[in-house]
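ugh ok so i messed up the first submission bc i forgot one of the chains. this is the corrected input, ALL of the components this time, i swear. 998 residues overall. if the numbers dont match what u have on ur side tell me asap before i send this to the collaborators (the ones from the other lab, u know who)
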Amino acid sequence: MSDTREQIPRISMLWLLCGLLLLIVPHVARLPVWVTVLLLACMGWRLLIFAGWVGFPARWLKITIVMVALPLTVVQYRSLGIGLDTAVCLLILGVVFKLLEMRDRRDIQIVIALSYVLAMLGFIYTQTILATLHAIVCFILITATMLSLYRDNARNTLRDNGRLAVTLVLQSIPLTIALFILVPRISPLWSMPLPVSSSTNMGVSDEMTPGDITNLGRSGELAFRVSFNGEAPAHEDLNWRGLVLDFFDGRTWRRAGSTLQTYQMLQRFPTTFRGVPLGEPVAYDVILEPTQQSWVYALQLADIRTDGMVQDRNYLLITDKPITQRYRYEARSYLQHQSDLELSTPLRARALQLPEGNLNPRTAALAAQMRAAAASEMDYATAVLRLFREEPFYYTLTPPALGDESIDEFMFTTREGFCGHYAGSFVYMMREAGIPARVVVGYQGGEYNPYEDYTLVYQYNAHAWAEVWFEGEGWVRFDPTAAVAPERITLWVESIFADQPGFMEDAGFSMMRFRDTQWLNTLRLRLEAVDYAWNRWVVSYDEQMQMQLLGSWFGENARQGLLVVLGSVIVLFFMLAGWLLLRLGQAGQHDHATRIYLDLLRELAVCGLPRQRGEAPGDYCRRVTLLRPEYAQALQQVTAQFEAIAYKRNSRSAPPGDSTAAQLKALENTSWQLRRRLLSPWRRLLVSLGLAS
Amino acid sequence: MQDRIGAAVEEIGKVLLGKETQILLALCCLVSGGHLLIEDLPDMGKTTLAHALARVFGLDFNRIQFTSDLLPADILGVSVFDQASGSFSFHPGPIFRQLVLADEINRSTPKTQSALLEAMEEVQVSVEGQTRALPSPFFVIATQNPVSLAGTFPLPESQLDRFLMRIGIGYPDPRAERILLERSSEGDRGAGLPQLLGVADLCAMRSAASTVSLSPLLLDYVQRLVAHTRTSGGFHFGLSPRGSIAIVRAARTWAWMAGRQHAVPEDVQAILPAVVEHRLRATADGDGRHGAALAHRLLTEVDVF
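and heres the new structure output, hopefully the right one now
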């Protein structure tokens, strides 16, 4: 009791404050400003207590702070739902509040334990190399705090603690790597309730209401990375197909309720593959950033190579659970293809659906007029594209808001919009003319990184286009946006948008800003390449990759191999740990010669000749000589050798040299000669395991 | 040189029959340069042993019978006015001998006891402002009677500590007693013992014994023994550093007497009861009678390794 109640060494406070400060830094961006201010204030107060300028806060003050901070946090996060962010915020607040009533060792031990949790908490949000390095530095600081609690005063210096902590953490890295590779990967038992706000409002969502959006935020966040086996297709061919939005209510495009198929349904009743591949496929693998949604993106007419994924009748790739972590999958796509040469009646009906009531009469009239003028359905589609190109339509990220007659207003009045406007209007025009059509959302293009040979697709690559069905052709892709702003498709998207308000508004100090400087751009791409390798080999190391890796090591029976390896690692670990503990425990008390001698004595005791407590070697030897003359000579020899090593050396003289090593060897030999006579090896094993006496 | 010790033991054994261990311990004490306290009933051979030791080593010997009216001056000496020279001259007391037998030391008053004990510690006496060195070597063999305690002044712990060893002699075994009974003359008291060793021999032995080496393992054992008296229950107080030094000193001599140049645990165990018994007192031990039991506890509770 008395030692846990001891005071905290001052040096521990320094370590702890540094560690906590560093721990909180990555969270600051997510925390409300008042929380950050409160955290800094608490740490500042603690620093003042440390300096001896102020005392600990009064009880009422502490209660007040908690009573104010707790409801305020809950209210703050209410709009986002009480979830992970709230919990993280409360945990951080709790740890920092604890500083203000941290008086003795028990308190600081709690804070240290919580700090380790905080250091790992960051991985929920981000798993980059930087985050890992940050966590390692945090671990070093916290470990140093803990070490400084237990070091004696003379050696308790910053330098000493730091060095020891660095050594400890670095030493733990090989074990961490081994465990990372070997411990079986179990798919998460629950998915983290991540706030869905960050990724969906900027990327692709499952509905599209162009009329409501007057300022399309575009972010430079990464959507996914692709590496092609072989040469990457041309930029304009990179149409990462996602959802099909085939229901239009006059304002919003969404997925028709009847088309929603779950993974389980599709797994039980797979859709027949209705695409006709033409030409050679391109193979690639994708690392998708978490989307919180259970579908993924692929080039059209994808052939799935990864388990846990099915394709629905709209060629959407559906996963068995929401993508809450980086997700890696492989696919093959036939860029040249035909699909759905036959269109079933329900599909045709859905592709022709129009909102009830004649909401957009002018567009309907225009469609009827143009359809009558066109010779074929195909001609009509190209005519509509020409209309977009030749009439004064403009591409903008900040279009004016549209009213109820959204299509009419866009087609005849505003004529300013982004991909959603063009794709929606185009499909509407097609449907008005009785041609099956639908909106497809996904990503277009991507940035090629020459250093690691892969392509990056960012959120600002999100795009919407149209698919039109023709008799004998199947679904044909049309991109009306390309008609208005062809450079949107063929050039770097950011070079067009750079002067547009709203483009990468929240990119902050992202390296994207420095795209124009050549060397910085090179640096950026190189860093990106490192990050890619990290994601590919570390972050996306999942059950499947583990099985592949272990399969390549142990042959195809990877599961058994894994079990064998893990089992033996664990058994070896415990045996080693036990042996070391036993050995260290003995070594702490006895020197080498005494250990040899006592090992022999233990076996003599098993043979019914126990040495009495306090009985000296010579006395014991004389007693055994009387009791068991057959061992007398051997034991006398051992005793003489042991006494020579143990007692002939003067404590003031130099430490044992080579002669002692030779003596030890001789002692060990004679001891073993006697031991072999005493016990059979089998019996010795049983005895040492405590199974026999 | 060890064989001469053997011869001495044999010679003394002729007057103190069947008490080789006690004789060896007494010799060990002497060679170690420590004072000896013999504690036993009257007429058990305490004085005989002291006499015999003095004879064998050829030491200058004197006996002081302690009584309750004995004064410090009676043992240290006094300055007497010499009428002829007209000045004071010092008449040395009986303590100015190489071997002093202080018989029944607990019968005298503390004042007299402390005069003797101070002389034992300092190997010099201060009389009337003048410091006078005692002869070298200087040994005190004190005896005390543990039974008839009425009218005695038991030695305090601090003064018991000054004696390197305390031994008891005990009754002779029946065989030895028979020989004793068959002897024609009584009260020989070793007068006829030959002088086997000289003072120079004793000094040589003492320096030889001090070169006996002590290994770390052995010192660990001694320290564990001492720590046991200080930390485990049942001991009223632990051994003082003087006590642990005494153990090591006696163990060295014992090892040397056994013909070894290094000490082994047996040496420590052999001298341990004699060295520590009078220094230990049990928690519930009013008269200091339980030293032997405590020493036995040390031997059985503290392991050698």
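quick check: The CA atoms of residues 107 and 152 of chain B lie 5 Å apart. that seems consistent at least. The longest strand of chain B covers residues 77-82.
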